[in-house]
């Protein structure tokens, strides 16, 4: 990391529209500074699928193992089209609000995983989990009990009003206590 420890930088990058790995981001605003082994990317803001991401990144390479900090606040992101464009998969739909404040050390995946610490949350509103049809399963069980015909849909999905996933991470162990889903049929 010697070259990065010597780096002195104060710059800004702005872009109207960028497409990477199939996903499109707009109105990118990046500020970057580097001095004495501390590299900061603040702001790291963009508009993403009708939503907004405000984030910052700090990399400290003064010691043998780099330390990284990430702050993220996102809101209004249409996650279905984002995942479809970026991953070519339909997993979840809805409007995403996310926040995270994470830190980690190291430059190898195993060390980063072991030192990951922080907290945050993901909240999806007015969406669906694609590929699972919990209401259909309930209807099929009821139908079998009453002797009726089971209903099937073209594309299995479980609609929800809210899917809230708060998380904490400590030394690489991520806990999602308090995760809940509210839908027209069930509360989990």
Kindly describe this structure.
The chain is an alpha+beta fold and 188 residues long. The chain is 18% helix and 56% strand. It is built from four helices and ten strands; from the N terminus they run H-E-E-E-E-E-H-E-H-E-H-E-E-E. It has helices at 2-6, 79-87, 109-115, 134-146, and strands spanning 9-20, 23-35, 38-48, 51-60, 67-78, 92-105, 117-130, 157-170, 173-175, 180-182. The protein is elongated and about 75 Å long. The termini are far apart. The model has no long low-confidence stretch (mean pLDDT 92).
Describe the main β-sheet briefly. Answer: 10 strands, antiparallel
**Unreliable segments (pLDDT under 50, ≥5 consecutive)?**
none
Order of helices and strands: HEEEEEHEHEHEEE
Helix proportion of residues, in percent?
Answer: 10-25%
The dominant shape is: elongated
Helical segment tally? Answer: 4
**What Rg do the Cα atoms give?**
21 Å
Look at the helices and sheets and give the structural class.
alpha+beta
Distance from N terminus to C terminus (CA atoms, Å) equals 47 Å
Report the count of strand segments.
Answer: 10
The overall average pLDDT, rounded, is 92
């Amino acid at each position: 990391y010697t070259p990065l420890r010597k780096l002195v930088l104060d710059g800004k990058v702005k872009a109207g529209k960028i497409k990477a790995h199939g996903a499109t981001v707009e109105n990118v605003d990046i500020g970057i500074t580097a001095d004495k082994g501390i590299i900061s990317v603040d702001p790291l803001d963009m508009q993403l699928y009708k939503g907004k991401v405000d984030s910052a990144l700090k990399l400290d390479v003064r010691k043998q193992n780099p330390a990284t900090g990430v702050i993220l606040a996102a809101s209004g992101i249409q996650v279905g089209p984002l995942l479809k464009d970026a991953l070519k998969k339909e997993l979840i739909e809805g409007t995403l609000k996310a926040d995270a404040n994470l830190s980690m050390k190291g430059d190898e995946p195993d060390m980063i995983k072991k030192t990951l610490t922080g907290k945050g949350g993901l909240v999806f509103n007015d969406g669906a989990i694609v590929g699972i049809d919990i209401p259909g399963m309930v209807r099929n069980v009821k139908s079998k009990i009453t002797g009726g015909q089971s209903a099937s849909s073209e594309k299995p999905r479980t609609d929800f009003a809210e899917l809230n996933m708060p998380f904490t991470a400590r030394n690489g162990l991520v806990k999602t206590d308090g995760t809940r889903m509210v839908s027209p049929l069930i509360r989990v």
